[in-house]
Inverse folding.
């Protein structure tokens, strides 16, 4: 359990850099190009790690569902971040917490204990405190950002489909053997978007290129391997709650790399999130379930 919690927090730290890196990368590349290249590179690297006899595609419908969800997540998230603020995206994307838990309960048959519900509630409260720092209602409902916010929320739901379907897929072999066909399908899902001539527009620039490389290496290959390993150790519903630590890492990394301010509200929200995670991480025995 504790090793799974540790891996989940490492994944959260890497994903915490995603909004900042994506926003910077979008200054030099299109949303379609970023998503397609990240998925294609990850597919090849996972295939090499799995062994050259690993098939690119499998007939398992859960593999295809997971890949479709992942591809949709990449595309919708990039479109959404392009149209809204990074900190607002960090707030509305947390709809994936609820959608992942619901899907995990009804598709995977996972059980929710009262302790996990308590920890999840505390964690979600902390997320709202951190991500709402400095936000106005117009940031969420303004016509210029509404479409972006909706796209980010749809991306969160699509990612939940990926997370649950990946767990349901039955594939022999190791983690790389499972990730290779999933990412192959996700790359295939992105192909129609690349048919637009505008999708290949590349402006470049030092910072966008560096951030694009970080997204590809750490925000795709490394983090999805870590997440997949964590899935093998803890339940998907618990993992989704632990990933709510992402906004904390996002705030800290924005301070380190972008010199954005740290506020008392950020510290308080971070402490609340850590408290919620601690409630879940210290669950030692099979608690009484409520669902």
């Amino acid at each position: 359990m504790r090793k799974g919690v540790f891996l989940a927090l490492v994944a959260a730290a890497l994903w915490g850099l995603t909004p900042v890196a994506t926003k910077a990368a979008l200054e030099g590349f299109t949303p379609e190009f970023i998503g397609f290249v990240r998925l294609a590179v990850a597919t090849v690297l996972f295939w090499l790690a799995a062994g050259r006899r690993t098939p690119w595609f499998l007939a398992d419908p859960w593999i295809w569902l997971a890949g479709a969800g992942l591809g949709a997540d990449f595309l919708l998230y990039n479109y959404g971040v392009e149209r809204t603020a990074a900190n607002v995206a960090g707030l509305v994307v947390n709809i994936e917490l609820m959608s992942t838990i619901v899907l995990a309960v009804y598709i995977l048959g996972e059980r929710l204990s009262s302790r996990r519900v308590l920890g999840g509630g505390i964690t979600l409260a902390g997320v709202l405190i951190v991500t709402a720092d400095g936000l106005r209602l117009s940031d969420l409902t303004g016509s210029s950002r509404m479409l972006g916010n909706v796209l980010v929320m749809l991306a969160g739901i699509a990612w939940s489909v990926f997370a649950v379907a990946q767990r349901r897929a039955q594939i022999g072999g190791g983690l790389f053997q499972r990730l290779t066909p999933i990412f192959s399908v996700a790359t295939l899902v992105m192909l129609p978007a690349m048919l637009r001539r505008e999708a290949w527009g590349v402006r470049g620039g030092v910072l966008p290129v560096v951030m694009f490389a970080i997204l590809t290496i750490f925000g795709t290959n490394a983090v999805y391997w870590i997440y997949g390993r964590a899935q093998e150790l803890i339940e998907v519903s618990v993992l989704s709650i632990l990933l709510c630590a992402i906004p904390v890492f996002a705030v800290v990394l924005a301070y380190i790399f972008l010199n954005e301010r740290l506020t008392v509200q950020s510290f308080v929200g971070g402490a609340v999130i850590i408290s919620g995670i601690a409630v879940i991480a210290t669950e030692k025995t099979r608690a009484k379930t409520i669902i």
User: Anything to note?
Assistant: Residues 2-281 form one domain. Residues 21 and 215 are 7 Å apart (CA to CA). The chain has one domain: 2-281.
